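Entry, Tuesday afternoon. Goal for today is a structural model of the target with zinc ion bound, before we commit to ordering more compound. Inputs were pasted exactly as handed over by J.K., no edits. I checked the ligand SMILES twice against the vendor sheet because last time a stereocentre got dropped in transcription.
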Amino acid sequence: MTSAPETSFAPPPGDLSAAGPDTDASARRLAYVTVGVPTLGFLGAVVFAVAYGFTAVDLGLLIGMYLLTSLGVEGGFHRFFSHLSFAARPGVTAFWGIAGSMAAQGPIVFWVATHRQHHAYTDRDGDPHSPRPAEDGRRFPRVRGLWHGHVGWLFTVRRQNWSKRVPDLLRNRLVMRIDRYYFGWVLLGLALPALLGWALTGGSGRGAVGGLLWGGLARIFLLDHVTWSVNSIGHTLGSRPHRTRDNSRNVASLAPFSVGGSWHNNHHAQPGLAHNRHAFWQIDIAGGFIRLLDLLGLVSDVRYPKRARPE
Ligand SMILES: [Zn+2]
Ligand SMILES: [Zn+2]
């Protein structure tokens, strides 16, 4: 394990980070909302299903909204905004930004800055969410390391060196506008399934509440934990076909749910690619969707692997 160059941690002039060693209080408040509200919403959805049943409309809205926002996170926030693995015009850029924001995992700039920091210092000091065993002498170091990599990091992450990590986003007026209205997109992601649930059930209140709970809050909860599992499990358990310098893993069982994001060792081996699939059987829904948009002429300059590398 090598340590990161010391200078990389020095905030450059004009950095966005709050001065001082502590986590920014507003970021911590946002972490409580980000983790807490969907958890309560998921529990509410289960109680609601026990009381009023679980309908085909509830399931359809859960799957439809999950697919839209998981593509927004993996295809948009991750492969497009974080890794620039293809290019898109403003309308398509806005689609990725809004669909990703509706996942409620944080605004674009936060998500991308954190992720680029993860790639710059993967599994070393400076990685915001490496699930390395805690080295503070307290009990259950592995479990606490895993917990930190999964969700704990949200409460301790610092907005350090953001302007250095995301100069391209900070210069992009469209992206910054989408970032600024983050909570509006989150609310849209709740209102949309509620409205659809209402409309698809002939204007029933039960349909609206079912849509809000399953297509909105429970969907956010489920996708949150799949995305965070790529950070925690995807750096702890799974196969390592590529001998990367980090501890990244391919987690096949999560592939359909992460729309391809859990081929995480493949991704760390070649992070700039729009595809994570290195063998024909590896499901990569986000990669397939980007390919479809490319065929339709909606995205361009897609960075495909030169040839598949089945290992
Ligand atoms: Zn990683
Ligand atoms: Zn990445």
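Residues 33-228 form one domain.
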